[in-house]
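Suppose a classmate hands you a notebook page containing two proteins, each written out with its sequence and a corresponding row of structure tokens. How would you begin to make sense of it? This section walks through that situation. The first entry is reproduced here exactly as it would appear on such a page.
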Amino acid sequence: MTLKQIKMFSLFGMFILCFLTHFLYNWFPNSLFSIFFPVNESIWEHVKMMTSSILIWSILEYFLLKKYRINHNNFVLSVFIETTLSIIVFLIIYLPIYHFAGSIFILNLVVLFISIYFVNIISYYILSLRPLHRETLGIIGIILLYIIMGILTYNPPENYIFLDTVENKYGINIYEL
């Protein structure tokens, strides 16, 4: 296998993993899972689903890279950039569509797939670079990203990105509009 083949495999693995992670908090409601997986049907919680799927799949990807002895550099930094950039790319593409057309399931899946595809391309190039010696930055970045996600899960701003339109509530809190 080559790095390019691993990244193509990862694209589909991350996409499929999103379907599983969508329901993990409902199946195992606890504080830890609330930080990593969606606690409601808001746009923000679906962003968490995507980033956590990328993070989880990256662990498997790491072992695949080792197993096939594929040269790569900057793995942790790549994962941090991949997870962070996925949020930005998803929101940039999704929010205008949501604003004009609302939530349409097939469009949501297409935007999710495009977002994961784009960040896998970026990840491929970061893994192909010479060593940048920024792995510590990547670890700190991933930890900070999930601290922010936890804060926004328990204390979301009253903004439509954080509103669960199904339950008419914000975050994990039970307060209603």
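The notebook's second entry, a different protein, reads as follows.
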Amino acid sequence: MQKKLTGKIDASNIKAFELPPVRDGLLDDFRALGDASGVVSDILDELGITGALAASFLRPTMAGAVAVGTALTVRNVPLRQHPYEAARAKVNGMAEFEAHNLAKPGDMIVIQGVSGVSNMGGISAQTGRRQGEVGAIVEGGIRDVPHSRSVGYPLWASEVTPVTGKWRIQTVEINGDIQIGGIRVSPGDIVLADDTGVCFIPRERAEEVLALSQKKVAAEGRKCQLIDEGMPVADLPTNA
């Protein structure tokens, strides 16, 4: 059944293509790593992949949250019209709801947004939770953080602001390639986010990154066990 569109973005700019499904259990295997953005960042370094951003830049709204999902991308730009004129005329160019419209369980919304204004609010977050999204990453502002927390929808954002984006933002593309903190993110890439930061894993390298991350997590777990058992520092393995 054809989904009804909001009309806030030209349908030609909504890339509703079907990506090949990731392996069953892939996202669960990444989740099983735990709060492993540091480990995954190390593996990305070893593989020559740029993909990690600090939590001091993309700050989490829910302490302790760990989210793993497939990227569903949104690109926003500033609206050219003056916001007060747009507000009087009820010109609302935000269309992240079209991303919710496309979302499948396990997706994570990733927004290349506009600074100084909200690119996602509480009702949007609640809609995303209903759709089965695991959370959102936003370069730019968000608002209504208590609302998104109350529905269990974690966000990682570069700003928090009460200023609405309704009269200040135009959504120009959904499911295209975007840039987050200078890192290219493509639709379907794997996103892992926790208290330490956010990692973007190219879809085509996900299995490789996962296998190496699993080995590193196991090695670090063994090293922690040896520390608790009292092994002298000089004897601890150095390859974890």
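A careful reader of the second entry would note: Residues 122 and 167 are 17 Å apart (CA to CA).
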